[in-house]
Design a protein that fits this description.
The chain is α+β, with helices and mostly antiparallel strands and 720 residues long. Among the domains are: 3-199, Hypothetical protein af1432 (Orthogonal Bundle), CATH 1.10.3210; 203-351, Beta Polymerase, domain 2 (2-Layer Sandwich), CATH 3.30.460.10; 575-636, no CATH class; 643-718, ACT domain (Alpha-Beta Plaits, 2-Layer Sandwich). The protein contains 29 helices and 21 strands. The strands form six sheets. Strands 1, 2, 3, 4, 5 and 6 form a six-stranded mixed β-sheet that branches. A hairpin with a 5-residue loop joins strand 5 and strand 6. Helix 4 crosses helix 7 (101-117) and helix 8 (126-137) crosses helix 18 (381-393). The longest helix has 35 residues, at 202-236. The chain is elongated. The model is unreliable at 352-393 and 554-559 (pLDDT under 50). It binds manganese (II) ion.
């Protein structure tokens, strides 16, 4: 048995395999494809297609399509193996071991693309899906194999259930047809489009198909009447040509009937005459010849050779009036252009040589090359670039929702970004995420094609920790906005408290509404903004009051009762002693008004004798040569003696407040000697209490306890 003959125990497989091998020219190619065939036959040996044929027949058919498209041997071998990893126990490592890294790379690419293809039940987002498809494929040849695979699946679709048929046909129409168009695979596009139309509207398809065959006799006469004289004329100019008539695709006729409301009989361009020549110059020569024979329709002439279409399509189109006064479209192009029209940019890739084209880096200059060619009239280079750059830069990923919708995210995105991309509320209340049905942290890095599911909880709130891992600006924007609002809310609350207490203390609480209405005078647009700044300490209430009410000053009006208080407080002491010298004649400083219990220091004045200050007194430090004139003094107090003190309490004028205060004082075992209250407009009150305390410590404790009371704004000891 010759080494390039396959012999399995199935006649169909043998026949198909050997036919495939016979199409290959080089020994090396035959050997590689034979190995792939044998491997594939073995791996798929127990599998059958819905048609009942052995599964491997599909793989051989796909390989044949790729040979039709002039694809390289790596692609053809990969096509034979394209379903082994997906459908059998074979691993990519095994493929790599047996057939090398290139084949393994392509098979892996096809497997990855296959894995996403049926995830999306509705193909609403064909655009995104196409991008995902391209970004997973990484190598254009993966797409080409996938196209051949899809073409064969569509050709054999009648064996599937009606539901499955409709599903696959819809996907073909919405994903594969537009992609084939963009990549310039015109004839594949027509084939796929017609095949899916046959599934989706069998009646419509059949009626057109019938009409075409009915009119074909007549048309073939017309076509022949053109071909013969043209061929003869071209020969005169030594232009070698291949001329044939070609029907428009059924779906393009279908569209004309449906969309333009035309009758089949009224469509003049049901078919076109195609002239294939060797060289570009010959295209223009042939055009000249045609135009000398038939009258061209002026606005129907298109030169896609000078300005190719975005997808790389090149040809000359002209519509002429033939002898019987019919309009006929004539297309003139070279063999290479015809090939490009067949398999689009794949052809371009083939002509550039295959070896260097396998990875993304190497595809970049090739794509640039391609794009520089595609600078034509109705081209959309930005769009084309956008479509293709995913392969090159991989800066986006596509994520499925559980329903099969696709969400586009930047690379490095997390389930939280996904949640925010769906809706701000979903992101803000997101608590848990599942990727491909497995629970993951919210910071998990997603990869292309993941299915993500998130759970929410209405009690969840965004937190600043999320900012550490979200990738999308949408997510961080919403989180930041939320955090900012919380901060503002908080600071407004604090600001409001500061304002109310401060106003009561300054006894101008009744001015609250006045402040609200005059907020613009201190450069605020709204009251909350003012409160927020007050709460954050950006402005000081005292300054605000001084600015708005220059007349109000915290004036301390001395009353006789204050003087009485001082006298009575000091009377508790026997006086001042200095180094044990008692009953010194002293004067008490008016600036700090010391009373028994305060730490004191003596100042030897010029002329006024010894003056008693508190050491913390401000005016003391401003006196000159103060250190030499200071002497240590003590109150001459008998032990256990208590002294009088006076407290000024600012509080809300609410029932029970005074009671709470007096109760607090009583709890501290302190006697109250006198209470005076004064109610202000605006709901605040002043209370003065004179009481006797044992020492400073217990006085301070008392002040603390009263300050803590709910309705009390401030407590201060009064010295004057
Ligand atoms: Mn397949």
């Amino acid at each position: 048995m010759p080494s390039d003959i396959i012999s399995s125990n199935n006649n169909l497989i043998d026949k198909k395999s050997n036919a495939l091998l016979s199409r290959l020219k080089s020994k090396k190619s035959k050997k590689m494809v034979k190995n792939a065939l044998e491997f594939s036959i073995k791996m798929h040996q127990n599998q059958k297609r819905k048609s009942g044929e052995p599964y491997v027949v599909h793989c051989i058919d796909v390989a044949n399509i790729l040979i039709d498209w002039n694809m390289d041997i790596t692609t053809i071998a990969s096509a034979l193996l394209h379903d082994t990893v997906e459908d059998t126990d074979v691993t990519i490592e095994k493929i790599s071991e047996s057939f090398g890294d290139d084949v393994a790379f392509l098979v892996d690419g096809v497997t990855k693309v296959d894995n996403i293809i049926f995830k999306s039940e509705e193909h609403k987002q064909a655009e995104n899906f196409t991008k995902l498809f391209l970004s997973l494929a990484k190598d254009l040849r993966v797409i080409i194999i996938k196209f051949a695979d899809r073409l064969n699946n569509m050709q054999t679709i009648e064996y599937l259930s009606p539901k499955k048929r409709k599903e696959i046909a819809t996907e073909t129409k919405e994903i594969f047809v537009p992609l084939a168009h963009r990549l310039g695979m015109a004839s594949l596009k027509w084939d796929l489009e017609d095949l899916s139309l046959r599934c989706l509207d069998p009646k419509g398809y059949k009626s057109i198909d019938k009409k075409i065959s009915e009119s074909s006799k007549k048309s073939s006469v017309v076509i022949d009447n053109i071909i013969k004289p043209v061929k003869k004329e071209l020969k005169k100019y030594k232009i070698k040509s291949d001329i044939f008539g070609r029907y428009k695709s059924i779906s393009s006729i279908y569209r004309k009937i449906q969309l333009q409301n035309k009758k089949f009989e009224d469509i003049y361009d049901l078919y076109a005459i195609r002239i294939i020549v060797d060289k570009i110059e010959d295209c223009y020569l042939a055009l000249g010849v045609i135009h000398s024979m038939y009258t061209p329709m002026q606005d129907r002439f298109k030169d896609f050779i000078a300005t190719p279409k975005t997808n790389g399509y090149q040809s000359i189109h002209t519509t002429v009036f033939t002898s019987d006064k019919r309009l006929t479209e004539i297309q003139i192009r070279t063999k290479e252009m015809d090939n490009t029209a067949e398999i689009g940019i794949a052809a371009h890739w083939l002509y550039k040589g295959s070896e260097e084209m396998k990875d993304i880096d190497n595809q970049v200059p090739w794509l640039r090359d391609l794009l520089s060619i595609m600078s034509g009239e109705d081209s959309e280079p930005e769009r084309m670039m956008e479509l293709l750059k995913i392969d090159m830069f991989e800066d986006e990923i596509f994520i499925f929702t559980p329903k099969g919708d696709l969400i586009k995210l930047p690379t490095g995105s997390t389930p939280l970004d996904f949640a925010f991309a769906i809706h701000s509320d979903i992101g803000s209340t997101c608590v848990r995420a599942k990727v491909n049905k497995k629970l993951v942290p919210l910071s998990y890095i997603l990869t292309n094609g993941d299915i993500v599911e998130v759970e929410t909880d209405k009690n969840q709130k965004p937190n600043s920790g999320w900012l550490n891992f979200v990738k999308t600006s949408r997510a961080s924007h919403v989180i930041n906005k939320y955090l900012r609002n919380i901060e503002i809310e908080e600071s407004v609350k604090i600001g409001n408290e500061i304002l109310e207490k401060g106003l009561r203390k300054a006894k101008i609480y009744n001015q609250l509404n006045d402040i609200k209405s005059r907020i613009e005078e201190i450069n605020y647009k709204n009251f909350n903004e003012f409160l927020s700044d007050l709460g954050r300490g950006r402005i000081i209430l005292k300054d605000v009051i001084a600015q708005l009410f220059p007349d109000i000053r915290a004036s301390k009006n001395k009353t006789s009762s204050d003087t009485d208080f001082l006298k009575s407080a000091r009377s508790e002491s026997e006086g001042i002693n200095l180094d044990g010298v008692r009953n010194l004649v002293v004067d008490y400083a008016k600036c700090c008004n010391p009373i028994p219990g305060d730490k004191v220091v003596g100042y030897i004045s010029r002329g006024r004798g010894l003056i008693i200050h508190r050491p913390s007194c401000n005016s003391l430090s401003s006196l000159s040569g103060v250190k030499e004139r200071l002497v240590p003094v003590n109150w001459d107090i008998k032990k256990d003696i208590s002294f009088k003190t006076k407290l000024h309490i600012t509080c809300l004028d609410k029932a029970g407040t005074l009671h709470e205060i007096t109760e607090t004082i009583a709890k501290e075992n302190i006697n109250i000697l006198d209470v005076k209250t004064d109610v202000n407009i605006g709901g605040s009150a002043d209370i003065w209490i004179v009481c006797t305390v044992r020492d400073l410590k217990s006085l301070n404790n008392l002040i603390k306890s009263i300050t803590k009371l709910k309705n009390v704004d401030a407590v201060e000891r009064v010295f004057s």
